Amino acid sequence: xxxxxxxxxxxxxxxxxxxxxxxxxxxxxxxxxxxxxxxxxxxxxxxxxxxxxxxxxxxxxxxxxxxxxxxxxxxxxxxxxxxxxxxxxxxxxxxxxxxxxxxxxxxxxxxxxxxxxxxxxxxxxxxxxxxxxxxxxxxxxxxxxxxxxxxxxxxxxxxxxxxxxxxxxxxxxxxxxxxxxxxxxxxxxxxxxxxxxxxxxxxxxxxxxxxxxxxxxxxxxxxxxxxxxxxxxxxxxxxxxxxxxxxxxxxxxxxxxxxxxxxxxxxxxxxxxxxxxxxxxxxxxxxxxxxxxxxxxxxxxxxxxxxxxx
Amino acid sequence: xxxxxxxxxxxxxxxxxxxxxxxxxxxxxxxxxxxxxxxxxxxxxxxxxxxxxxxxxxxxxxxxxxxxxxxxxxxxxxxxxxxxxxxxxxxxxxxxxxxxxxxxxxxxxxxxxxxxxxxxxxxxxxxxxxxxxxxxxxxxxxxxxxxxxxxxxxxxxxxxxxxxxxxxxxxxxxxxxxxxxxxxxxxxxxxxxxxxxxxxxxxxxxxxxxxxxxxxxxxxxxxxxxxxxxxxxxxxxxxxxxxxxxxxxxxxxxxxxxxxxxxxxxxxxxxxxxxxxxxxxxxxxxxxxxxxxxxxxxxxxxxxxxxxxx
Lengths: 310, 310
What we know:
The structure is a homodimer.
Chain A: H1 9-20, E1 24-28, H2 49-67, E2 73-76, H3 79-82, H4 85-101, E3 105-112, H5 116-127, E4 141-144, H6 150-163, E5 166-172, H7 179-182, H8 189-202, E6 213-217, H9 222-231, E7 237-239, H10 249-252, E8 266-270, H11 272-275, H12 288-307
Parallel strand pairs in A: 1-2, 1-8, 2-3, 3-4, 4-5, 5-6, 6-7, 7-8
């Protein structure tokens, strides 16, 4: 039901990162209010919803041009598609299929969670396993929220084993208020969850040596990032917060530690900082797409430089 | 953009509960594998996805016949629609619109959450506020997950004020492993979140006296439910766990405390126990729909009996 040639998601991802020689991840956040003028119909209240969703889709497909060959993966954010209802979800499916057709891995930023019987349905929706459904719009991995407990995450792990896909568990998020509940208790809850994520990954490892169970850890807390890496030594990390949210390439360096594979072990995400780079004064003379390309090239160079060991 | 006649969601809900004289909530979980035989095309891998979604929709529309006049609200579970992709989401929209057209309130069980800028898009998707989009498929309230912190919930509260809709924050869930992270720390994290939910509700109250910010508290932990009610005296609670998950009507009684309004303050949910009652031996002689009707009537009688004060 899914092309198994590439093996487990983490091995496919690791190979793709080695190919592009950088660990950058392009987030696809088609925020209606921020889209370039040529896609303004997406926010036009008089336009039909399908037409609005079509503009969102076209914008994302053009971002895939920017991503292809430069980065290993893209991370579409489901909220910005769901706001246009079923038409938006159709656009999501087309964008995911197009990304995979271009050789990009897809990390669906859906932050789903529920009790086990329902979580199993979410896993089927995004990771596959339901008979008869087109696998082209399934993700290689998705983000999931842990508040409901380990039994709520188990169906995603089970689905991942079957469909060779994976999850990134939200452990420590990049937003200002993220610590309010995540750092509650002693040890902090996020450290308890980090230990659990590391343990699940011990049983589920790729050939590259990385665990096949990932964690989201905001790059906006560098000291905590180091601690998280210690707690989850083989866990693939997804690091939001670079760029628009204020984290620097130096901040993310603590997530990487293998001198033989300098890009291995984490993905550094930027969404708005790339897609909406055209809004920044330094890109005023460029088209939106040239601005995105330039911003992504600059990010890649910046991250490569920070990770180059003497 | 939304009919304001009924006022704030919690007042609309309170009035509807008073009308039907019971606090029961019918969950719509169209689990493909459990649907009655006449809807079997929903799980047929050879059928077109749109046809499969159509069967899910028809099943839910028939469940609305069962709900209408008996209960105040229904709670569709998004995962079982999303498994059929854009076609499933189209079915979700039609089911929500049909429920509202029949005078039922809709509590969308979507358990969404994200950092604030993204949470705002989820709020628009389910609670409204985006210009030009059809409001008929929006929910009266949705469930949201708190792990990302208070700033991640703020956009839902803001949207709720604007569109007179609301949220139920997951505080203490009904699943066996729910306590693993929710009860972490001293005081337990869920108690800290309960206090926050109560505080947000102090600023945002309906005319009925209940807060306009709700909480999900599993009925499967009766002692904790009492404690949660103490921490959130005016918070509308959503109580999963009755029936299929093992909680009894007596277990939920601690959530109610107003002798003048015996049904006020909480919704008692049952999903599989009603929709799939036909699978139980005692309903073997009935059609699936008659079984659902009988099971819902029995639940209503059971809950009314447990809440009747001497």
